[in-house]
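Thread amino acids onto this structure.
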């Protein structure tokens, strides 16, 4: 099942996504897209990691700021190999920062990506000086959507956290406008592909898919 969780800054969307991950499976793989550009961001990353470690839920963290589609494809392949060969050696699986190996558990882990907005921002900053920046990012979004569909096709659970950024004023600078527009395109495509879409406002999650108006 593909689940998209969206909302504004500090709305509680990440906390809800983590709780829902624990509801869906016994173990989670947390794909973090944040990059520690400065001390404040390093502190934020450390705080979120510590909060996960304090829970009783079994998390494995992968830090991947750019190659998100490729990571999902790789995880899907590893899980397929585990299903075919239960005796797969653990040394063939990626490890988290503590050296704990993924796999060897009953049932597939639930994958949580937090967040897509940072992933898009990382790519935009990487290619912003290129003349075909928007076209390249549209291709990256298409690749991500395809990877998400492929990962969940066999019944695995994948949760994606993103931000609603288009409710305010039109950004003054071109880079801000590109980010706003590409975020809207990304969120719309993934929402159309998702079985469940949650909007979190003031800590309250509302499931939107069942409320969708049909012509």
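Threaded sequence (215 positions):
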């Amino acid at each position: 099942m593909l689940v998209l969780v969206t909302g504004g800054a500090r709305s509680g969307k990440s906390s809800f996504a983590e709780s829902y991950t624990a509801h869906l499976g016994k173990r989670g793989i947390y794909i973090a897209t944040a990059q520690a550009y400065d001390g404040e961001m390093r502190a934020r990353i450390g705080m979120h990691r510590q909060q996960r470690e304090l829970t009783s839920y079994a998390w494995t963290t992968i830090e991947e700021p750019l190659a998100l589609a490729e990571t999902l494809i790789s995880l899907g392949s590893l899980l397929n190999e585990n299903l075919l060969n239960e005796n797969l050696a653990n040394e063939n699986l990626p490890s988290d920062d503590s050296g704990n190996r993924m796999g060897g558990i009953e049932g597939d882990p639930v994958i949580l990506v937090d967040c897509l907005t940072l992933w898009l921002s990382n790519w935009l900053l990487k290619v912003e000086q290129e003349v075909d920046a928007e076209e390249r990012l549209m291709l990256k979004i298409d690749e991500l959507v395809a990877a998400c569909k492929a990962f969940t096709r066999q019944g695995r659970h994948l949760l994606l956290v993103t931000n609603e950024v288009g409710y305010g004023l039109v950004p003054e600078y071109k880079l801000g406008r590109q980010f706003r527009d590409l975020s809207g395109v990304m969120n719309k495509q993934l929402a159309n592909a998702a079985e469940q879409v949650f909007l979190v406002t003031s800590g309250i999650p509302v499931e939107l898919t069942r409320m969708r108006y049909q012509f």
